[in-house]
Amino acid sequence: MDFTKLKTIIYMILRKILYFMLIATIFITIIAAIILVFIYTSFSDKDFCLDSNICKEGLTINTEHGKILINKSSCENYNWKWLEDTNSCFIK
Questions:
Q1: Which of 50, 74, 75, 85 is the most exposed place for a label (fewest CB within 10 A)?
Q2: DSSP letter for each residue of 15-65
Q3: One domain, residues 58 and 32
Q4: How far apart are alpha carbons 10 and 16 in whole angstroms?
């Protein structure tokens, strides 16, 4: 086999491997970004709730009454103020 042909074949194989690695890296980066967005979103909602006492609907919080899922009925059950425009509950 000619050295030039062998060199070309090796170059093509390496190029395909590098292309695959690039695609895999982009895919992993996108998946990691999506996971981080979900984690950040849930933490920021909970942090905002703890700082401002305004908790979004669907958030589960730990109170002196135990764990409570924030929604309109639970907000009204504990005599908290339900904020209809933001679907949030003012818990103090």
A1: 85
A2: HHHHHHHHHHHHHHHHHHHHHHHHHHHHHHHHHHHHHHSEEETT-EEEETT
A3: no
A4: 10
| Three-state DSSP state, 82 | strand
Q: Single out the residue of 40, 66, 44 nearest to residue 55, CA to CA.
A: 44
How many structural domains compose the chain? 2
Q: Is there a single domain that holds both residue 74 and residue 38?
A: no
- Reading the chain (92 residues) residue by residue, the pLDDT tens digits are 678 888 999 999 999 999 999 999 999 999 999 988 877 766 667 778 888 889 999 999 888 878 999 999 999 999 999 999 999 999 88
